[in-house]
């Protein structure tokens, strides 16, 4: 669900978060509308809004693990974990973690990838929250859920800063709830219209490509 549908309708923090995200068309390749959250991180007040909203939601859910998906889940996950008294567990791409790991593969539009987690980082019965910056189809988050469940953790919810409304009801999240702060932005300095998105569509971009942030 979107935060505005769950008690935060009209909350000025959501507008500030949305406005702080920069849209870069045709990056890193033609047909992609890149949702750049680095501009949000430059504004410490808006960055704090993101963390505060997630903390308010999760502080009383008895969560002991915040799992952040590489790479931009690392930007928000540790702050949320500290505030709710949980440990932070990085879920990384292949060959990034030293020592023994457990891996979970997932499908991309053209090929496959996988997430890895240190063996022993999460214990059976722990309650986990998965954090990432953006969700389009849900493939990466689903892999994160499977990874945590394989070691016996209970995944309480997945939280994302940005989510595509077109696929809100189609995400493959293994039955787990999803909490999203804002929708993707249109191009900066333009009247909100479908022209920019249509341009990317005409270049053959999928929904996931149009909001990619990897």
UniProtKB/TrEMBL annotation:
Keywords: Cytoplasm, Glycosyltransferase, Purine salvage, Transferase
Domain of life: Eukaryota
Domain Phosphoribosyltransferase: 44-163
GO molecular function: adenine phosphoribosyltransferase activity
Protein family per UniProt: Belongs to the purine/pyrimidine phosphoribosyltransferase family.
Pathway(s) annotated for this protein in UniProt: Purine metabolism; AMP biosynthesis via salvage pathway; AMP from adenine: step 1/1
GO BP field: adenine salvage; AMP salvage; purine ribonucleoside salvage
SUBUNIT field: Homodimer.
Annotated organism of origin: Malus domestica
Protein location: Cytoplasm
Protein name: adenine phosphoribosyltransferase
Flavoprotein listed as a keyword: no
Gene Ontology cellular component terms for the protein in this record: cytosol
Principal cellular location given in the protein's record: cytoplasm
Catalytic activity: AMP + diphosphate = 5-phospho-alpha-D-ribose 1-diphosphate + adenine
Cytoplasm in keyword set: yes
EC number: 2.4.2.7
InterPro entries on file: Ade_phspho_trans, Adenine_PRTase, PRTase-like, PRTase_dom
């Amino acid at each position: 669900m979107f935060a505005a549908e769950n008690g935060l309708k009209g909350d000025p923090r959501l507008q500030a978060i949305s406005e702080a995200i920069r849209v870069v068309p045709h990056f890193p390749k033609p047909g992609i509308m890149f949702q750049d959250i680095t501009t949000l991180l430059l504004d410490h007040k808006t960055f704090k809004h993101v963390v505060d909203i997630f903390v308010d939601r999760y502080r009383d859910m008895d969560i002991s693990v915040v799992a952040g998906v590489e790479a931009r889940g690392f930007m928000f996950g540790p702050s949320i974990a500290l505030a709710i008294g949980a440990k932070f567990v990085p879920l990384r791409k292949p060959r990034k973690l030293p020592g023994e790991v457990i891996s979970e593969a997932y499908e991309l539009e053209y090929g496959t990838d996988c997430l890895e987690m240190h063996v022993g980082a999460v214990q059976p019965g722990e309650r986990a929250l998965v954090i990432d910056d953006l969700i389009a189809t849900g493939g990466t988050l689903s892999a994160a859920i499977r990874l945590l469940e394989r070691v016996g953790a209970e995944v309480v919810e997945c939280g994302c800063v940005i989510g595509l409304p077109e696929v809100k009801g189609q995400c493959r999240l293994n039955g787990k709830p999803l909490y999203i702060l804002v929708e993707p932005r249109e191009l900066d300095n333009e009247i909100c219209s479908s022209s920019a998105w249509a341009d990317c569509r005409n270049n053959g971009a999928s929904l996931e490509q149009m909001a990619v942030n990897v």
